[in-house]
Write a structure and sequence with these properties.
Blueprint: H1 3-21, E1 23-35, E2 38-49, H2 52-72
Antiparallel strand pairs: 1-2
Protein name: DUF3185 domain-containing protein
Transmembrane segments: 50-68
Keywords: Membrane, Transmembrane, Transmembrane helix
């Protein structure tokens, strides 16, 4: 299996996951205040929304790479 096919499969999987989940969250640690030995840390929850068009575009691009990879190999 060549690199183009692997990339195509990875794009299809990523696009399907993007369509299935729609967003993902992560926690970011931020140092809000530091006065001498005292520190105040804040944990912020960030959410990243994945647009539907991006998931569809990844699936289409992955399919095109699979087709192009099979014609060459």
């Amino acid at each position: 299996m060549n690199g183009i096919k692997v990339l195509g499969i990875a794009l299809i999987i990523a696009g399907a996951l993007g369509l299935g989940y729609g967003s993902f969250s992560y926690t970011k640690d931020t140092q809000a205040l530091k006065v001498g030995p005292i520190e105040l840390n804040v944990k912020e929850k960030e959410t990243v929304n994945i647009p539907v068009w991006a998931g569809i575009a990844a699936i289409v691009a992955g399919g095109l790479l699979l087709v192009a990879g099979s014609k060459k190999g």
